[in-house]
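Researcher: Checking consistency across runs. Here is DUS-like FMN-binding domain-containing protein again:
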Amino acid sequence: MMQLISTVAALVGKLLDMGAFGARLMLNPKFVAEAMSAIAENCDAPVSVKCRIGVDDHDSYSELCDFVYKVASGSPTRHFIVHARKALLNGISPARKSKIPPLKYEYFFGLLRDFPSLQFTMNGGVTCINEVDAAIQCGAHGVMVGRFAYNKPWRTLAFVDSSIYGASSINVSRRQVLEQFQLYGDSVLGMYGPNKPNIRQVIKNKVNMY
């Protein structure tokens, strides 16, 4: 574990020197491959890369394929989580970056076709369980649901186990969930000092439980 921490710290130092973080690293697949190799050497778990389909004007399908090929061939990475929008590096907020560029799911499904030995999880714009199921039926190895699950947790997650994994329904109500969460919330309020966390921070993602 200490070796892994040391490796990650060294990588962060290189990133600081390069002035490159997040989606900008798609412009440097060689470094991404080196970083994933270094992490994999000191980690027992498989490594994966989460990326966009492109960055600014570097948004062609061929450039995306080049990124995936160079990372996969230069490291043990065999799993990519692909947000089907390109990233804009012009200073707009993360929330707007997740809405303004158009979704191009055809890029994602092209990767499934052109890299059959790799695994790809789809991300971006998924708003219901039916869309998750449709993506899996079309070959996606997984689906990552982010903002919608956070903003509408009950609508998004209440029936995942039965709808996607075929598990038996446990018939838990929202009231029961919130009652259990209250016990948890009471136990962590002020855990790290006065108002750290405070009640607003604890219940923020439970406001939209519908």
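Researcher: Does this match what you'd expect to see?
Model: One thing to look at in this run: The first helix runs from residue 2 to 18.
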